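Appendix B. Raw example, untouched.
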Amino acid sequence: MPDSILELKDVEFGYGEKPVLSSVDMRFGRGQVIAVMGGSGCGKTTILRLIGGLARARRGQVLFEGQDLSTLDEAGLYAVRRRMGMLFQFGALFTDMSVFDNVAFPLQEHTDLPDEMIRDLVLMKLNAVGLRGARDLTPAEISGGMARRVALARAIALDPALIMYDEPFAGLDPISLGITANLIRTVNRALGATSILVTHDVPESFGIADYVYFIANGGVHAEGTPDALRASTDPVVRQFIDAAPDGPFKFHYANAGLNGDFGFATAAAGSTETRA
């Protein structure tokens, strides 16, 4: 793996008394696209929250460009976040702003660039995602796939070193899904950035990822290249990749921490991906 821009070292985290992550070690190489996969409730989005400094590990370190995020004050944390871009699940665009203003927002908030330069940068980012002609439309006037591309343009507005994608393929039709996957790879290469995909979508993610972390039972259950995981005989990995209804992953939600088990709970009542 190339030199790492981000590392998680022996990270432990939980919500209240509910354990979510334990002894997690991960490295994210510069210039790579890395997928973080696993069943709902396994801790994938929590990992993004830890990386963005929205949550703090109970134990261990989250190191971004060598800086331990837990040691940073508010100003230091905001400075680090300006080196990161985030594409939220379903885009999270400002509904009362135009497409142009949505993409311009981070540039206006975090830079002192003149309006003319901001205009040129916004149009450049919109052109990169194929939506320069939609600049004056509102989110209500564009499709879901187009909204996801606007959100991607906003996420890369500041040319971040690290781009995080929370379920970038959710709810997209096959054409939009393919376009989005290609854009992620293309943008990553153009910026020389590192991209982290939190996703359930196996075919598209395996098609663009350099490396995959598979999260289960509170930690990194398996890792490797997409080809290595495709060839895996591990029953947990195989059930997920093959979308098999029977296997280690259970439909019904288990009591957290029961007998030291973090559970393989998936789409059960009471389990939400936004919290774990």
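End of appendix B.
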